[in-house]
Amino acid sequence: MRGKTPEDRDLLELLDPVAESVGLDIVRIRLMGGTLRRRLQIMAERPSDHDIAVEECARLSRAVSEVMDAADPIAGEYLLEVSSPGIDRPLTRKIDFELFEGHEARLETDRMIEGRKRFKGLLAGVEGDNIAIDLDGEEDTALIPFDWLVDAKLVMTDALLKRGAELRAARGEPEDDGLPEGGPDTDTTPTSEDNA
After folding, report:
1. pLDDT tens for each residue of 33-79
2. Distance between CA atoms of 193 and 170, rounded to whole angstroms?
3. Whole-angstrom distance, CA of residue 44 vs CA of residue 24
4. What are the transmembrane regions (predicted)?
5. What is the pTM of this model?
């Protein structure tokens, strides 16, 4: 889920070591857009506390740009965007489901489970290779195979907003930054891979 397409997964293979070299983990990569101008979105965080600062986004952006210039994996122009996962972040790794246990999430699978592919409820952790979720309106905890997930995201709730405010306060930021998903931790770098 960290990379949706084969191209995303190839970029992850190339860029995971780059992120690790600057002390970060890539949460998700998406290469979006058509052939004229594409956007490479990288969401990253520190593995120690699952947070990221603006300076770290900029540092990762520079490191990624160097590797991308040398490897040239994307034909044509693209815009590089490095950001935090945001408050209502995507859940792409098993650890994400443990970190946000008790928070509301939406999950989508690539196949039917008891007649549906979409699920909403409170995360209840991880059990082996399954994500545990207390589904809305059901008594039993459902177990959904992690490998069957194609999309998972936290739902914006008061509890999640409170958690985000606590993280911002710990960083010494204002209580309400008024910024969209991705928050203040975004570095956008225009890049051209047309070096021919």
Report:
1. 877 789 999 999 999 989 899 999 999 999 999 999 999 999 888 99
2. 39
3. 6
4. none
5. 0.82
